[in-house]
Design a protein that fits this description.
Growth Hormone, Chain: A; mainly alpha; 434 residues
Length: 434
């Protein structure tokens, strides 16, 4: 696929605009309840653990919405979808702000989950794939680099807003940010990229071939481990002898490692094949886990750096691997199919690993390492496809047929003249319009 004509506009401006949008979107959604959970629980007389666990509701809503949104992106183009994301984020945050009980709170969180499906990484990645084709790896990495700052920016900003305006005011302030900052940025910097046209025929079915299954398993395992670490890493490190404060400070290294590895991917690692960097990423967590099992709490920073670095690279791989293996055709829908098992696994990960962690911190670390080694195994035998194995071949676009114009047989005219049946003057008269 050739780059779109819209790709000639400044790439840095597009990456900066989309990256800032990702940073603000993550900060106001994925990390929102971790800060506001206690205030919401106290105000609505709910258990804090229940409010914090409502992130699973957002992730479930996002999982159910992902596939139709992927089809919408391929049909209408990514800009239209991304423009809808900001008002949907604002609506979800406003519903949370006016919640008076658990049901209205759940409704607001569910709308926030739909906004996450509309506006987080998959949609910007699809826009870049449409614009730059196989050259989209570096801008995807740039967006992931800025999006990785969502916790760094979002957590303290939400805390400040809560102290200044209360949790309801904080939600409304974030809603205003989406309408007054994210929406104008998207409208100004994002080019319109056409989707599938009517004459292209019906939308193709994407077959679940071996490569698709391997990628889906890889991403599902990655997001399960990521959710486990996000929910339980400090507690896991405490199981290896660290005090609570020391465990929290060690766990904070995850963000530093993730951003550092994305920066490396953006600069020195961008020339390496994405499949090779993915293999390296899957092994960083097991290396940290082995250090933790061998040396105890003293190796907690190694564990955090390994998980953060691997997760930072895998966030980029989630956008780049499907593009490098299958190409940009139907990229958004294919990515949505691959992400759906991962989204459901992300919901179940904290619960499953919480049960394992109740028995043994070492068992939880071993289980997460087994998943990472499974991810490494899934990278084997992945080969580039011109189209998915088993996908129906694209139908050739019908070409307009030239209109046939009736022609007189020259031989018969010549015979009529030369035989004497018609004189040359009579023949010319017969050919002139009446």
């Amino acid at each position: 696929m050739e780059p779109s004509p819209a790709a000639h506009r400044p790439q840095a401006l597009l990456v900066a605009g989309l990256g800032v949008g990702q940073m603000l979107s993550f900060g106001s959604s994925f990390y929102l309840l971790s800060v506001l959970g206690e205030g919401i629980a106290a105000s609505l007389h709910l258990r804090p653990a229940l409010v914090s666990s409502l992130l699973s509701v957002a992730l479930l809503a996002s999982a159910f919405a992902a596939t139709p949104i992927g089809r919408w992106i391929d049909t209408r183009g990514g800009k239209a979808v991304l423009l809808w994301a900001s008002p949907t984020f604002a609506l979800g945050l406003a519903l949370i702000a006016v919640a008076r009980g658990p049901l209205s709170l759940i409704l607001g969180v569910a709308v926030l989950g739909v906004a996450m499906a509309l506006g987080l990484y998959e949609t910007p990645y699809a826009i870049l794939a449409s614009l730059y084709g196989h050259s989209a790896r570096r801008p995807m990495t740039g967006i992931a680099l800025l999006g990785g700052l969502g916790s760094t920016v979002g957590l303290p900003t939400t805390l400040y807003l809560e102290h200044a305006f209360g949790w309801r005011g904080a939600c409304l302030a974030w809603a205003a940010v989406h309408l007054c900052v994210c929406l104008p940025i998207t409208a100004l910097v994002t080019p319109h990229v056409g989707g599938r046209r009517h004459e292209d025929g019906p939308r193709p079915l994407i077959a679940w071939d071996r490569g698709m299954v391997q990628l889906a398993v890889l991403f599902a395992c990655a997001w399960t481990v990521s959710a486990f670490v996000a929910a339980h890493l400090p507690r896991t490190l405490e199981g290896f002898g660290l005090a609570h404060d020391a465990a929290v400070h060690a766990a904070a290294l995850i963000g530093v490692a993730a951003v550092s590895m994305r920066l490396a991917e953006f600069t020195v690692l961008r020339k390496l094949p994405p499949l090779n960097t993915t293999r390296v990423a899957t092994l960083l967590h097991p290396i940290g886990a082995a250090s933790l099992l061998a040396f105890g709490g003293a190796a907690a920073p190694v564990m955090a750096l390994g998980q953060g670095g691997g997760n930072g690279m895998l966030t980029v791989a989630k956008g780049v691997l499907p593009l490098s293996l299958y190409g940009p055709e139907n990229y958004a829908y294919r990515s949505a199919l691959l992400a759906t098992p991962a989204r459901f696994a992300q919901v179940a990960g904290p619960l499953l690993f919480g049960l394992i962690l109740d028995r043994s911190a070492a068992a939880a670390v071993i289980a997460s390492s087994v998943l990472c080694l499974t991810m490494f195994a899934m990278t084997c035998c992945l080969t580039k496809q011109t189209q998915g194995e088993g996908d129906p071949p694209p139908k050739p676009r019908p070409q307009p047929q030239p209109r046939a114009t009736p022609r007189r047989a020259a031989g018969s005219h010549s015979y009529a003249v030369y035989s004497g049946a018609l004189s040359p003057r009579q023949y010319k008269s017969d050919r002139s319009p009446s």
